[in-house]
């Protein structure tokens, strides 16, 4: 038996792929709803009818359950849960993070997960909290790695996950990723990140995930433990996460909270239900509030919305428009926007994963100037063949006496007319020019100048942009008569 992962489409570091486990296939990115057998607001069978291909349940809960333990051992998880898809089991690490200890050893939980027929088995890793010091993080990472190696030795043929720990220390996360990769794991969850998400520390989340990814192979399926709200899924996929598990659909329902792709609302405060799912189109907000089945109906809605967002992300990856979706979603909260900007700070790293050509480039503000497509263009612009005297024309009009005349399109910069229909020049939509995009385009001019010190450059830009060009492109002659 083995876990295999095939990448079909990619955009930024996000992938649409196929995770194959025990003869079953899961389309990724994928959500694994958390199922508690004692409190199922939505049954696994209903989930499967909604399109869920994999779920996660807690082996520790099953092991301690007088109602389900013997039944799971006798019949197997798939029969007990009435679910034909892929089932992943948590080892008890969640309880370890909440209570500080669990009454089970690594070997015991591994043996139990194997005995109940789990498709993906997780060792008892140590979830180091974000506020832990480096010494503790390193110590607990060492324990986690010992347990992962023990799991590999005890069950060499099992479908094991290799959790990546290390607290908020990026070098430890990268080291952990490399260590589990060296052990041959093809499915690696990034753990102990729930406190970061609960406290809206998306900047730290970006650093932690990208550090883990640096240690892992690009062929490894990456699971982000405990990522439950659809507003942050696009950001996480852009980082390279392929799977998520969430109990938010049920937890939020019990708290009377109504999930949307942009955030959550208290159902008691809603006058309308702004969602096309079957729950929201079958009743009013007041009827939902008053329903005796309110928690279950809210859970169904929350799960519909969450699954729809995953499908929307898969489509965006296939279309090459993930950046636009990330930009839209991350503007729903200032902390998400901070996480988005932190991701853009790693554009050089992400550019190695990203596609050379895409369907489109929509300019959505100053953040767009830092996207991978702009960075790549500035890297390749020096390849443009030019003569001794070069004019970069903002309005496309020429000035006599130049060997080479290039047009200008921000945020990319100079381009020859032959590239006018190619990506990204021809497939980019920009509004009225602003300072940020023109400044970014000037960086493209500078890159061309630095690659050709023997050439003399001039820029025809008109009065509006003259001073900015003079500041951003020192050494170039500027034509700035009114145009």
Automatic annotation (TrEMBL):
This is tRNA-guanine(15) transglycosylase. One of its GO terms (cellular component) is cytoplasm. Belongs to the archaeosine tRNA-ribosyltransferase family. Keywords: Glycosyltransferase, Metal-binding, Transferase, tRNA processing, Zinc. Zn(2+) binds at residues 275, 277, 280. It comes from Methanoculleus bourgensis (strain ATCC 43281 / DSM 3045 / OCM 15 / MS2). Exchanges the guanine residue with 7-cyano-7-deazaguanine (preQ0) at position 15 in the dihydrouridine loop (D-loop) of archaeal tRNAs. GO terms for molecular function: pentosyltransferase activity; zinc ion binding. The keyword Oxidoreductase does not apply.
